[in-house]
């Protein structure tokens, strides 16, 4: 009788040990999933904020250079912002022209107020 009680107790202990292990493993997986979701949402938020900051910086530079010029033409403003963004990232005038489906002269005309002095003189002499 005592042997059976001992066997049953060992069996119950083994079952409880296995159950505890699986529940702990599931809890760790749930925590890991939650952590990954937070990480992804934070990264998306950071990317959105970086894009907004880049757009605000470019808009600010555009407005500073266009003081007194009517900025109600949104298409032209967006084209200028996109072209300036590509230029600030190091794209060449030719690649910007190709990307925006404009001629190189049109892109140079758009970007001339934003180009450095040496580049501006170079562009003026190329014509």
Commentary on this structure:
The termini are far apart. The protein folds into 2 domains: 65 residues; 56 residues, no CATH class. 83% of the residues lie in helices and 0% in strands. The model has no long low-confidence stretch (mean pLDDT 85). The protein is built from 5 helices and no strands. The longest helix has 64 residues. The radius of gyration is 32 Å and the shape is rod-shaped. It is mainly α.
Helix and strand element order: HHHHH
How many DSSP-defined strands?
Answer: 0
Please give the count of helices.
5
Percent of residues in helical segments? over 70%
| Major pleated sheet | none
- Can you tell me the number of structural domains? 2
Keywords: Coiled coil
Coiled coil: 39-66
Organism: Bacillus timonensis
Protein name: DUF2802 domain-containing protein
Could you provide a short overview of the structure?
The chain has 127 residues and is mostly helical. The protein is 83% helix and 0% strand.
SSE topology:
Layout lengths: L1 H64 L8 H15 L4 H8 L3 H8 L5 H10 L1
List keywords for this structure.
127 residues; 83% helix; DUF2802 domain-containing protein; mainly alpha
């Amino acid at each position: 009788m005592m042997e059976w009680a001992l066997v049953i107790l060992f069996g119950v202990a083994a079952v409880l040990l296995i159950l505890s292990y699986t529940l702990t493993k599931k809890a760790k997986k749930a925590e890991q999933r939650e952590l990954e979701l937070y990480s992804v949402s934070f990264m998306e938020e950071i990317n959105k904020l970086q894009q907004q900051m880049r757009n605000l910086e470019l808009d600010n530079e555009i407005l500073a250079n266009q003081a007194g010029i009517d900025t109600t033409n949104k298409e032209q403003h967006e084209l200028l912002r996109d072209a300036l963004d590509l230029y600030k990232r190091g794209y060449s005038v030719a690649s910007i022209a190709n990307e925006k489906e404009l001629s190189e002269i049109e892109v140079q005309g758009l970007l001339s107020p934003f180009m450095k002095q040496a580049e501006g003189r170079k562009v003026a002499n190329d014509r």
